[in-house]
# Entry
Amino acid sequence: MSADGTPILRVADLVVRMGVQTILSGVSIEVRQGGIVSVLGSNGVGKTTLMRAISGVYRAASGRIEFEGHDITNLAAHKIVAAGLAQAPEGRQIFSSMTVEENLRLGAGRRASAEYLQDRERILAMFPILTERLAQRAGSMSGGEQQMLCVARALMSRPKLLLMDEPSLGLAPKVVRQIFDLARDIRAAGTAVLLVEQNARAALRVADYAYVLDGGRVALSGEAKALASDARVRAAYLGGHAT
# Structure
């Protein structure tokens, strides 16, 4: 599925403060139906704050967040999930002492057993390794498997938009490629993706459109292929200059 012209998410002039410190200063981004959008930037520029504000974990001081045309600014996090927006958070945050099966059930919420099993079958088709791990304690799996569980658990809520926060963090290059391939699979299955990532090369390869945050503001934005060739992006994030 390719992105069409209809925004599923629109963030306009978002300001987020922590105490006296302003973390985001008027950030505006869009994610279109069927699209993959990447938000790039170094540590501390506000990427995770942006994700948490969109998902209702952090409060916006001002600005507006719209999902499918409805204002969700500062809506309770569980209501945002119910509306169709889920997050696979930074650091995975799976329930380590629980089994893979139990984590997936939590992701599905109060869905009836028959519906849960249908959704589980659909999700496990994307994550076949988890089929072999259903009875295994989540914390005993490898980092890559835990990241897959984090994403699978988020998908169990049937989101229309999935927020992926630093999914490659701490993973081996081979596993990183698998995770980014999954982003394409998720989009192909009908779910738009907003991807926050420090691995700019991998993120730009998978995205349609990208934003670069710097100092809590959008410093650059454009088609992902164009940004991958931009001299400023290549110098700051890709280890070289445009040729």
User: Anything to note?
Assistant: Residues 7-237 form a domain with the Rossmann fold fold (CATH 3.40.50.300). The chain has one domain: 7-237. The first strand starts at residue 7 and ends at 18. Strands lie at 7-18, 21-32, 36-40, 62-67, 70-71, 85-88, 161-165, 192-197, 209-214, 217-223.
